[in-house]
Structures are given as C-alpha cells and as structure tokens.
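Objective 1b of the project was to move from sequence-level analysis to a structural picture of ligand recognition. The entry below was assembled by the postdoctoral researcher (A.K.) and checked by the PI before modelling. It contains the amino acid sequence of the target and the SMILES of the bound compound, flavin-adenine dinucleotide.
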Amino acid sequence: MIIRGDGVAAYCCAHLLSKAGFQIELQPVDRPRLPVILLGEQALALIRDIFDQPGLFADLPRIRKRIVAWGPSAKPGTVEHSAIVVSEESLLDAIRPDLVPLGSQEVHWTIVAARPLPAPSVEHRFGSRTASAVPVTLNENSDPAACWIESLGDGWLFLVPGWLLSVGAAAETLLAGSRVVAAEMAERGRPLAEFPAYARIASPLCAPGWLACGTAAMAFDPICGDGTAHAIREAILASAVIRALAQGEHLEELLSHYEARLTAGFRRHLMLCRQFYLSGGTGAFWTSELDAIDHGIQWSDAKLRAHAGFRYQLRGLELEAVL
Ligand SMILES: Cc1cc2nc3c(=O)[nH]c(=O)nc-3n(C[C@H](O)[C@H](O)[C@H](O)COP(=O)(O)OP(=O)(O)OC[C@H]3O[C@@H](n4cnc5c(N)ncnc54)[C@H](O)[C@@H]3O)c2cc1C
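Corresponding predicted holo structure:
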C-alpha cells in the first residue's frame, strides 16, 4: 500500500502497518516544517509507546510552567506544565521508518497524509487566522523552563524559549500591545514561515481505496497544543481500519466508523477552541473566528446526525466489532 506524506501521521501509519506485515511505500511531499512543536507529557508518552522508543527525547530540557494572560486585561496566572520543545524536523528524524520501495506490486489502498485529497473530497475551513513563527531570544532573567500565552485585541502570542508564535496578526502588531510576552523577550528575528491556524476538515475523509489521515484529514488550531497527538491517534485508527479490512471486516461499516470517529474528534476540538475564542477578546478578530468555530460545530453536528452509531471499538491497536 501507499502512504502519501512525510509527517507524524504518515510515519505512524507506516510504522504500525509495516510492523503488522504490510508492504508500504512512503511518498514524501515537499512542504515547510514547523520550527517548533511543544509536546506535553501525554503526547510524548504516546509517541514513545507507538514507536517503541521509551527513552525518546529524555535528555531534552522540560518546560515546567505555563504563564497565561487570557482575556481583556487578564492578570497573568501560572499553571504547572510538563512538556518538551522540539522542531518538527528533529521529531521526524527520530521516528522516520526504514522502508523499501514497493516496485511493481499492485496497490489497493492509499493513506492520504498529505494534500491533494482525492476527488470528490473538499476541505471545509472554519476560520481564517494564520500563525507565523519568529525566532527570539529570552531576557537574561526570564525563566528558561516557562512558556507564555497572551491574548490581545487582534490575536494571541505564544512564547517558548527560542520561538514566538504570533496568531491572527503580525508579531510586531501584537507585541506593541503586549503586557506579558513582550517583557520576556530580548531579541526578535524575522518571521520564518506562515501557517494556517484555523480548524479545517476534509469531507469525505475516506472512500473505497483511500483514507485521509493527519493534517490532510483534519487540521487543528495550535491553541490546544494537541495536533501531534491527534495525528497519531488518527494514524492508529487508520492502520486498524486497514488491518480489519485485510481480515475481511465490512468495508462500508469500517469507512463509516472512520469518518464518524474523526468528525467527533474534530467537533471536540472545536468545542475546546470555542472556550478560548469566547474569552480571548471582544474585537472583530475574536467574534469572527468564534462565528466560524460555531459554524464548524453545526457542520459537525449535521454530519454526526447522519451516522447510525459506532459498530466498532479500538482495543489497543485493533478494531473490534461491538455487538
Ligand atoms: C503554527 C503551528 C503550531 C503547532 N504547534 C503544535 C504544538 O505545539 N504541539 C502539537 O502537538 N502540535 C502542534 N501543531 C500541530 C502539528 O504540527 C500537527 O498536528 C502535526 O504535525 C500533524 O502531523 P501530520 O503528519 O498530519 O503533518 P503534515 O500534514 O505533514 O503537516 C505538518 C504541519 O505542517 C503544516 N503544513 C502541511 N502542509 C503545509 C503547507 N503546504 N503549507 C504550510 N503548512 C503546511 C500543517 O499545518 C501541519 O501543522 C502546530 C501546528 C501549527 C500550524
């Protein structure tokens, strides 16, 4: 089978399916890498477990606290945290599977973990905000084991040692009104890349012959900080669907299960985002992004209403039919 993409989702599908005896060809695509990803304790544990690497990133320094000022004139509060900061490149280097090309073998299934999506699938977008990543240095007396999150009139800022993520407006615009983040920074470089930062989902997410997975299937707002763990959970489900198909389980029911499970996960993400965008600010940026999120929730509800109920459940890495 073919797995198109070279992100976490593609690597996870390739790892799980080759371990289960499938022959896999990875088809990489060229795209910008994220300079920084924050991986919380649970996401890191999941990656270590799935990729059989119990000591992965054990030597990286930890972020131990999150300093949050969210909402108009909110005072900064401190929340305990445990996370590591890695570049997407180093994460992918650590989990890249070792595969050989398929040659002339017949291919029955493709996991689409990178655009373009097969027809008739289209992407539904619920927002318009973008994020840019800017290299920075912290002040001498800033805590190197902290990260900072601040909402402002036209967007929000997220600072980790080495990087500033600016969402909704350019870093200089947001920093001009910043009460928390700006005070922690000594120097700022030029923005490296701009990424869409609103939630979006492909529909349909699968059809006979292909399954969409990872960001190609659903993309998440970085405010929730769980995109990587989501991509891995989608890859676990996609791989389980492929294995269940190979064992003769019912094609349409499996595809319907996959579509509904992913849509339900997307709805949960929108509900989480809703709380942030409801409380982050009151200006045009916040109200228009909140409207788009609400539209996404209604869209997901309509999709889920058409689903008859879950006939499978995941046990470990396997899908089992429930009676
Ligand atoms: C700005 C930003 C910050 C993030 N921070 C975190 C974080 O701190 N922790 C975390 O767990 N997850 C974070 N994520 C999400 C995480 O990067 C993805 O969920 C994860 O990499 C998905 O893996 P994948 O295999 O689907 O990747 P892919 O589909 O290969 O994509 C990986 C990333 O690259 C971006 N991308 C893909 N194609 C393009 C393109 N053509 N142009 C521009 N960008 C593209 C995607 O939006 C995605 O975030 C962030 C995402 C963004 C956009």
